[in-house]
Amino acid sequence: TGSTRPQRLLRAVQKKATQGDPQSVIATIDHFCRHSEWAMNVGDEKGSILDSVVTELNPSSALELGTYCGYSTVRIARLLPPGSKLITLEFNPAYAAVARQVIAWAGLNDKVQLVEGPSGDLIPQMKELFGVQTFDFVFLDHWKDRYLPDTKLLEECGLLRKGTVLLADNVICPGTPEYLEYIRNSSRYESRYFKSHLEYTKVEDGLEKSVFLG
Ligand SMILES: O=C(NC/C=C/[C@H]1O[C@@H](n2cnc3cncnc32)[C@H](O)[C@@H]1O)c1cc([N+](=O)[O-])cc(O)c1O
Ligand SMILES: [Mg+2]
Fold first, then answer.
1. 109 is catalytic
2. Ligand 1 contacts CB of residue 182 (under 6 A)
3. What is the distance in A from the centroid of ligand 1 to the CA of 66?
4. Interstrand relation of 112-116 and 160-168 (parallel, antiparallel or unpaired)
5. N or C terminus of the chain with fewer C-beta within 10 Å?
């Protein structure tokens, strides 16, 4: 039984990236995905848009749905001010194991809490388990048919506040039609589309930034 792609991605990080240097972990993963094996990380082009949204917001509490190998986890956590916390949810144990090591290699363990399990079960437990009041920022990058149900769940659980920003990856490719339809037509959100490209390709994709109005 050979290695998996996430394991090969992790090996590249441990071989080429500087420990404690998030930027070198990001650069190593982007190089690996461009020149060795494509992987479904948000990537460098959309990643720059993610960076600008996080930097502008300067969130104290952030949530990521779908950790995968931890690439966007590292991108977000490296920008968080001291004392802030990024909770990232991942239900695949093999992916979670790789992500933990990528996050550790970047030296970001104190800013990240990776929780293994399905978002649908974990979101209702956020307050009691992790003492979360509300999230300032949510990055959606998990199964595309989970974006809408999980957004509604975040609303119902009182985890969004006036001004919370939701940033959704892949709203064009693979696409999240039900989520887009809901969020763009809801009077409770102000949305904007950031045109970009699918990671490491020339295919169109983009991020939808939505502010919860309360
Ligand atoms: O399919 C894509 N992403 C799905 C990502 C899924 C990741 O989130 C986890 N997950 C899923 N529901 C979950 C619920 N709870 C917790 N983790 C969960 C999965 O275990 C996986 O680690 C994708 C596909 C392409 N593409 O070009 O094909 C490009 C992209 O940028 C993508 O993000
Ligand atoms: Mg994605």
1. no
2. no
3. 6
4. unpaired
5. N
The alpha carbon of 24 is separated from its chain's Cα centroid by a whole number of angstroms, namely 18
Distance separating alpha carbons of residues 164 and 28, to the nearest angstrom: 31
pLDDT band of 2, cuts 50, 70, 90: confident
Q: Are 75 and 29 in contact (CB under 8 A)?
A: no
The 10s digit of each residue's pLDDT in 55-110 is: 999 999 999 999 999 999 999 999 999 999 999 999 999 999 999 999 999 999 99
Q: What's at 97, amino acid-wise?
A: A
Is the CB of 30 inside a 6 Å radius of any atom of ligand 1? no
* Residues pairing with 76 in the sheet: none
Specify the 3-state DSSP secondary structure of 133: coil
How far is residue 158's CA from residue 205's CA, in Å, rounded to a whole number? 30
Confirm if 106 and 14 have CB atoms less than 8 A apart: no
